[in-house]
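TL;DR need structure tokens for one chain.
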Amino acid sequence: MAKADKNKVNPYLAEMAIATKKDRQSLYSECVRFSFATTGNLSCGFDAKDLVAWINFYYPNTFDAKGKRI
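>> reply
TL;DR here they are.
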């Protein structure tokens, strides 16, 4: 199993997902939805684990241990 890679994440999609103010568990679905809306492609180019690594790096104090917004 591949390790999470925060560098795979499209920052524009991730920032749009964060702006929805949803819980961490919903953010990957939002990225897929935004990707489909903008490109017509269901693949956003990264996995949920990559997005979690990106969030933990750039927004470390935004979510609690259960993924709820603080």
